[in-house]
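[Structure tokenization] protein backbone as discrete codes
[Encoding] learned vocabulary of local backbone shapes
[Protein] chain in single-letter code, fold in tokens
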Amino acid sequence: MKDKEFTDEEINELLNQYNSYIKKDSKLRLLKSLLNSLMVLMTFLVAILTLVLVFKNQNLSLGDKYFNKSIKSDIQKTIKSNASLDVVKNIYTNRKEYSPSLTDLFNKSSDKDKYLAETPLSEVLNDMKTDYYLSEKQDTIYLKKLVSIIDAHEIINPFDKLEENQKNDFENLRFKLGENYSSVLTDVNRITDELHNKNQLVVKYLDKSNISFLISIVALIITILLSFYQIYQNRKERLLAILGEVISSRNKENKEEKEK
């Protein structure tokens, strides 16, 4: 039995019917709608993350805790009242920590009155010493008391600037050196300061890298969605073209067989 030869009118009719079937396919249209919505959402997220990266206060992070620098005023009052190091440490230990608000995150100067929660007491005390020399009022009695508190704290907690594991390593070093520790004290203090500065830089740039990573992930998702969308957009045209080629090829074969 010979295969039927399709006329141009029949081929067009088949193509029109197939095209009508595709248009009526509700699942495909739903998929298209979902893809469009997802792309709009992802594009919006990328825009938001980019704005955050550009305009955000780079010294603040929503995931970190902070405490107010007004703690220096409280410590200053206690030092002027001849308080001991224990009282100063108690004020520091009971400091109120909080997360920055959205307003703080987009205020370029909002970090000026905040300490990162991990800021050691030694740094706060040294800032107070710097503030004293920058102020116009000179109170040498207060300065002597402040220096005495700083010296006492350095003797008792020389490594409080460091992270916990680093602190433990230096404490073990001091214990093993015993009386010989004084001979390397200057070098140890220098290394401690360098480690503290590097730790702060790591925290600062880690926040930036996290935001960049999020933007990269969202951009990748958008790229994948765009690829699926383009595949869907071209699917109907490709299927119609393939159907047309199959029908044309079949007609050609039928004609050749008929001529034989």
In short: The longest helix spans residues 185-259. Strands lie at 66-68, 97-98, 114-116. The chain has a mean pLDDT of 77.
